[in-house]
Amino acid sequence: MKMKVLLAKGNGELCVAEMEKPVPGPGEILAKVAHCGICATDVAIADGTLNLGANMNPVYPVRLGHEWSGVVVATGANTRRLKPGDRVISDTGYSCGECKYCLEGAYQNCENGKAIGTIGECWPGAFAEYMLMPERLTFRIPDGVGLDEAALVEPASIGLYGLLRSPVGPGQNLLVMGTGPIGLGGMACAKALGSGKIILAGRKDAKLEIGRSMGADLLVNTTKEDLREVVMRETRGEGMDIILDTTGNPDIFNETLRLLRGSGTIVIPGFYGTPIEGADLDYLISHNCTLVGAAGTPNMGRKVLDLLGSKKISLRPMLTERYPFSQVQEGFAAVKNHNDRRIKIMIDF
Predict the structure, then answer these.
(1) What is the pTM of this model?
(2) For the segment 201-244, what is each residue's pLDDT rounded down to a tens digit?
(3) Residue 319's domain is classified under what CATH number?
(4) For the chain, how many structural domains are there in total?
């Protein structure tokens, strides 16, 4: 039996093709995909512009898609936890579970690991009618959480992962730079963890207002206000305890560092895509600050699902546009053309 999938060739061309519908083997589940979000990484892969260095570049053609949700339709032998009818999401990386890193719990460093639908010799992605995954990397969605909202977990989990490697919590003020789904999703999680004052900085008023609904205490449109002036006013000249910089803008790296207080933490989940010339690491060192890189990690989606299931956060405000799979090319185009208002564009199956 055939199924439809989306393939990227790296020249800006997206192709809907047919592939064999997978059959789950031992320890695997097959899910019918319900929703899949379009990530900026997906667009860069499609355009052939993603450049992360050796062994990190896509191997074309790429079956894209890593922000997905669906319903289990079949299970292989030796599956114990999931059954047909269960609503699920998955990790965004495959890990073998057997190498020395996996046995240490460092699944993100798996010697046999694969990204899902993105870089390298990847695991086939979720812009497809059906998704095959190991059961151990697939998580049940709590009752009361919609399938579409569950498909927003992945970007929020990246923001949460980075913030959990900082002292986020009561009394710790937080600056979120950028109004994309990683920043807004991470910010919502920080609010649920009891973070102190949250300042959200961006360039589009419509996106900033969505951020207000997700937990921002103060909005700063950086095209109209001086961010440093606002930060120093709000912190009595001390600077921020934590900065979550999702902008991916290398030109403001040094300026961002100077918004931190002494012994503060800057978390960077946004790829720069280029070495940063003149990065003032001496400032970081002399002020005893901490720099955290965060590209996501396995099992973090479970934590975001728990927050959603307990109604401590809502990610639904991030869902700004939807397209059926039959219009997936239009959805990808909208990521570029609707930048003034889009946060997450979802493809519905």
Answers:
(1) 0.95
(2) 999 999 999 999 999 999 999 999 999 999 999 999 999 999 99
(3) 3.90.180.10
(4) 2
